[in-house]
Design a protein that fits this description.
elongated; 4 helices; mainly alpha; 132 residues
Amino acid sequence: GQAVMGTICAFVGMLVAYRSGRIRVTPKFTKMLIGAAMGYLLLGLVSIIGSFAGLGGGLGLFGISGFGPMIAIAGVALASFFLILDFDAIEKGIAASAPEQESWRAAFGLMVTIVWLYMEILRLLSILRGRD
């Protein structure tokens, strides 16, 4: 329940921020998000390798007190900002009169981001509750 509500709130919040113009997609914004995603991926790989070595009680970097919740919050924020890129891609596709049969690509991209956001919220809730 909490993860679903958190995902919905993040989705609606980012949609409102995008539609109101408070957050605009610029080349710099896109580059920063892609760079942050690569860094987060690298951090995840380090965490997996660390978990095999017993780091954080087998949870990797996410099991380290204080550091784990910060990483999880960063993951939620990153996934939330990727929603903005999805909204922009959909809006540009509509403006460019993309063929209707191509709409599945935009829907698939949006769904992948929503699932990623949901998983990050689940991870954060799990860390905050002290479970695996």
